[in-house]
Amino acid sequence: MSAGTLRVGLAGLGTVGCGVVRILAERAPLIAARAGRPIEVVAVSARSRSRPRPVDIGVYDWVDDPVALAAHPSVDVLVEAVGGSDGPAKAAACRAIELGRHVVTANKALLAHHGATLAGAAEAAAVALRFEAAVAGGVPIVKALGEGLAANRLTRVYGVLNGTCNYILTDMAKTGRDYSAVLAEAQAKGYAEADPSFDVGGVDAAHKLTLLASLAFGCAVDFDGVSVEGIEQVSLADIRCAEELGYRIKLLGVARRDGAAVERAVRPCLVRADSAIGQLDGVTNAVVCEGDFVGQIVCEGPGAGEGPTASAIVADLVDIARGARAPAFGVPAATLTPAEPAHRPAPFYLRFRLADRPGALAEVARDLGEEGVSIRSMRQHDEADGAADVLIVTHACDRAALDRALARVADSPVSRAAPVALRIEEV
Amino acid sequence: MSAGTLRVGLAGLGTVGCGVVRILAERAPLIAARAGRPIEVVAVSARSRSRPRPVDIGVYDWVDDPVALAAHPSVDVLVEAVGGSDGPAKAAACRAIELGRHVVTANKALLAHHGATLAGAAEAAAVALRFEAAVAGGVPIVKALGEGLAANRLTRVYGVLNGTCNYILTDMAKTGRDYSAVLAEAQAKGYAEADPSFDVGGVDAAHKLTLLASLAFGCAVDFDGVSVEGIEQVSLADIRCAEELGYRIKLLGVARRDGAAVERAVRPCLVRADSAIGQLDGVTNAVVCEGDFVGQIVCEGPGAGEGPTASAIVADLVDIARGARAPAFGVPAATLTPAEPAHRPAPFYLRFRLADRPGALAEVARDLGEEGVSIRSMRQHDEADGAADVLIVTHACDRAALDRALARVADSPVSRAAPVALRIEEV
Question: What is the enclosing helix (H) or strand (E) of A106?
């Protein structure tokens, strides 16, 4: 291990970038003691040089372009905090690796789309590519999966991976307000972006799940292999009905090994209200790892924000300073193997709005039964205007069969609204 | 990094040792892919060669003595699973380091007493000393503190560190049976040792807390600096009264920075029933880390057992195979600094058994008041035989002042039993 200073080129000076500057400055002696050598920012790059910032960047070399920053002669490691799955972020990371510099990034979109290519290039160049900050903010879950649980054949990794969605769902449940009201408030408070579609649509969580799946199962880094559904359609009525049945609704990312196939999905699910995931409120993230030897490990913490994200980036820098050079996804990039998507049967929560008349329930029961969907419990929930909500919990069933049954019900004369179906995830 | 096989000498073939043999054999290709090279047991040692075991040890070199095993010519790394804070475990670890071999151990007693010496020797010899399995079994909390949160100035680390105690306390609360009945059943089920004193007396948790405190705060590895109290005196009555007030009783290990001093204590505490720690049931362990940048991180999982412990040991071996050489406690052993114990004021739960007569409450209130202990709430709980339980929650107060007040009450004519005082820990 070199005893000299590890020199950082920092591309991107938004919240996260400034957080990195702040930690490295404020905690310099502590970090040098832990890393065995000083870690210092030497050069920076951002879209605007003059924008007001909470840290003084005048002491660092300024470079206009992140790709040029990657090639700055004094830079040992590029911290990429630019964002975006392509464009300058990708170009800068590629250039840094090409020149034999390490790369640390919080950019889940970049990695979900180009992770395998970048990891392979980093191995070929014998440099580190690290991304602890890309998943669950300050929670060291990338390290836990890639190193701490390395002895295990993992069976399932799942969790609440998007704080914005969890905040919205928690707040709907607590205040009884509907989705759009809560989203508007989350935007006002800064918990949701002006354009929230990446968060509420599940894409951000799917980027993270892509990385977790590759770390856990050694499968190819394949964003397109993730089935994605957001929380836009989750209604207050379903949150209330789920509560009545002992469940909470969470946007879950789930990756599960099924032989050679790997199920990868982000979607709103029902989870037991008394489980660790069920109890997770607000913007907190949680990841659960299940392995054959270790059993079940749960890690929770703040999933975003300047402090947690910068904390994770600097932890990666400390590891690099100490000489850590493990492959980015825990195994050589060339061995990451494409995995078929798996479609596992599961129990479902169903809500039907039916005409309040004799034979309506029988119609639903027959439609489900004829498609092989078996009912575990059924209850009538709410009655008004000649219609009633009927809640059904099924035994484990195939989603395709369920969809056929739901289509039958929707087409029947007793149906008063589109049926709702949400998966129940055992946690 | 060498590409050759990492050759393991395994001292101790009890549950944990056999678990290591099993993982390395059953997961060989996976581990080799993750470690970048094969990891193989080459030689073993144990008290009895012929004792029946779930794994075949005939394929490994047999060495009678762990110290001789440490010096076996083919051994790159010693896995010490012998146990005990001194004797053969210590001798074997020292010998291995002296000869330039890495050491991996699950032995919290050894490290709590000799961790700094061993860490210093390992640094001088440029070998790794690793102990992920020593704290919270399969939960990668040593890695989280030493690496994942390395950018943070940590403020507090606490948790449920002993599964046996948590099982007993959880079971008392659930079944309404008293301590001795539940302990006897835990022994029958194998959750508690025949001699349970290390567990129920808090010593095992204190060993672990000693290591966590040094990892978190860089303080000297100082078992004697930990204040230790076990669960033997926790009564069903207090568990029930705590529940009534919205708390659960847990054996907590707490390490908290207070300027240059570090509070280190293991003791039964009241924690909010709705907190992550409050909800932790059975033999599960949990550790909470609080840092200035990262906020609060919670890690939970099985704290003991063959699979989780062996999983942690093998994770350490994978790190060593990959070339990881960070100092054992995250900073150079020579910089670990003795820290004064801190005595932080805290709110307390008090239970008094008082004569059921006018003036009894006034006597208690006066005794507390005169020692500067202020009352947040007070309620009468139970009344029988002319005596009544009075529950008091105090504002934060000094333990010494509280003890003086309790002595006054105990000496007064209204007292019918020794007062109970349990700290309330904010979690």
Answer: none
How many distinct helices (H) and strands (E) make up chain B?
14, 16
Contact state of B147 with A30 under an 8 Å Cβ cutoff: no
Structural domains of chain B in order of their starting residue, each with its CATH number: 6-134 (3.40.50.720), 141-302 (3.30.360.10), 348-424 (3.30.70.260)
Element (H, E) at B391: strand B387-394
| Chain A, chain B: beta-carbon pairs less than 8 Å apart | 189
Q: What is the phi/psi pair of residue B30, to 5°? A: -60, -45
The tokens describing B259, both together, are 């300027």
Tracing tokens 């959750």 back to the chain, one arrives at B191
Distance CA B352, CA B332 (A): 49
Read off the tokens for A335: 């061995």
Per residue in B42-87, pLDDT (tens digit) is: 999 999 999 999 999 999 999 999 999 999 999 999 999 999 999 9
- Residue listed under structure tokens 């670890």: B93
Angle between helix A399-411 and helix A360-370 axes, rounded to 10 deg: 150
Q: What is the mean pLDDT of residues B375-391?
A: 89
Alpha carbon separation from A23 to A31, B126, B330 (Å, rounded): 9, 29, 18
Q: What is the pLDDT of residues A76-86, one digit of tens each?
A: 999 999 999 99
pLDDT at B123: 97
Angstrom distance (rounded) from CA A391 to CA A347: 13
Residues from chain A that touch B312, judged by Cβ atoms under 8 A, are 148, 151, 294
Tokens of A339: 């995995």
Structure confidence by residue, pLDDT tens digits, A236-281: 999 999 999 999 999 999 999 999 999 999 999 999 998 989 999 9
Q: Does A1 touch chain B (CB under 8 A)?
A: yes
**Is residue A96's pLDDT more than 70?**
yes
**Is A298 part of the contact surface with chain B (CB cutoff 8 Å)?**
yes
Q: Does B311 contact A296 at a Cβ distance shorter than 8 Å?
A: no
pTM of the model: 0.95
Q: Does A104 touch chain B (CB under 8 A)?
A: no
Closest chain A CA to residue B323: A324
pLDDT (tens digit per residue) in A29-57:
999 999 999 999 999 999 999 999 999 99
Give the ipTM of the model, two decimals please.
Answer: 0.94
Q: Which two tokens stand for residue B42?
A: 């080459």
Q: How do strand B295-302 and strand A295-302 relate by DSSP bridges?
A: antiparallel
A250 tagged catalytic: no
Q: Among residues 16-35 of chain B, which lie with CB inside 8 Å of chain A? A: 19, 23, 27, 30-31, 33-35
Nearest CA-CA distance, residue A330 and chain B, Å: 6
CB atoms B300 and A295 under 8 Å: no
Question: Would an 8 Å CB–CB cutoff place B52 in contact with chain A?
Answer: no
Cα Rg of chain B, angstroms: 24
Is B295 within 8 Å of chain A by CB?
yes
Record: contact B150-A323, CB cut-off 8 A: no
Element (H, E) at B288: strand B284-291
Output phi, psi for A238, to 5 deg.
Answer: -70, -35
Q: Given phi > 0 = left and psi -120 to 50 = alpha, else beta, which region is A285?
A: beta
A292–B contact, CB cutoff 8 A: yes
Name the B residues in 213-252 with CB < 8 Å from any A CB: 218
Place of tokens 């949680």: A286
Measure CB to CB from residue A295 to each of B302, B324, B330 and give the nearest one: B302
Nearest alpha carbon to residue B391 among B278, B238, B273: B238
Residues of B in contact with A1 (CB under 8 A): 325
The pLDDT of residue B126 is above 60: yes
- Distance between CA B305 and CA B287 in Å, rounded? 18
Residue (of B419, B367, B360, B406) closest to B386 by Cα position: B360
| Beta strand B227-228 pairing with B348-355 | unpaired
